[in-house]
Amino acid sequence: MTAKPKVLVTREVFEDVLEYLSQYFEVTSNQSDVPMNSETLTLRLSDKEGAIITLSDRIDAVLLSRCPRLKAVCNIAVGYNNIDLEACTKAGVMATNTPGVLDDTTADFTWTLILATARRLSEAEAYLRSGQWNGWKLKQFLGLDIHHATLGILGLGRIGQVVAKRAIGFEMKVIYHDVRRATPEIEQTYRATFVTKEELLSQSDIVTIHVPYSSATHHLIGRDELEQMKQTAILINASRGGVVDDQALIESLRSGKIAGAGLDVFENEPKFNPHFLELKNVVLAPHIASSSFATRHKMAMLAAENLVAALTTGKPPNLLNPF
Q1: 240 is annotated as an active-site residue
Q2: pLDDT tens-digit map of 134-176
Q3: CATH topology for the 6-101+293-312 domain
Q4: Which of 240, 267, 296, 305 is the catalytic position?
Q5: What is the CATH T-level fold of the domain 103-284, as seen in this structure?
């Protein structure tokens, strides 16, 4: 009887996902959910043919050189800046992601950040919880209206489009910028107008970011871009840390150059700039935009399906590096 291929699941996943994988593989799973450093991950993968990984797992040339049996790494995420695709291709390792299944949930959370930031919810809740509230006041926690405001979307991909769709209900003016202009059909469907990046920054009441992280998008929003925004505007980032220059954002929030920010992602997470905690005009979340039960389950199962396809047919449905 042929032995099943060995695979590693690097972080805790749902039991039915493990049961599915066990039909095809000898599965080792980190259900204790303790993040692995590079050395531990390399050792655990050294005799494996495949892996289900997360954003906390770095797959690079050094690791691949020490894991000669590895044939596939399947990310439980849409983004894949934790994977060196060029190194994977050179090593003959298939890499996959989980697109599509989290678009609506991430868009929902983007709107959570938009509403909470615009209406100063975190600041107001902290005020209430600390026992400072002593009655209604006319000018208490005045915020930004969402309805009829101008929403600027940086990146009108799958998630950006769903964010734009939800803006229709708020009767907002939607403008967007992307490296490639959308088709007329997409622009008409989502009532979105293409503008330059400079126009988007200067005209928007709310700027929301929906681009992947890469060297091309590193600090896409930095000091110069923040200077171009309205003083009354807010910035939302539920895409990836590193797209925004966090230090420049902190300085802009501290000085009042922009009114507020809602952030789900940070540079160097889970570590992040502690000066964010000193600011009242920022809403902070620990990278949970896709974190509904249904969506996270779909993500994990899609990663498992990618791994099964990769090691049984060599043709996973969400292959990032065809070779």
Answers
A1: yes
A2: 999 999 999 999 999 999 999 999 999 999 999 999 999 999 9
A3: Rossmann fold (3.40.50)
A4: 240
A5: Rossmann fold (3.40.50)
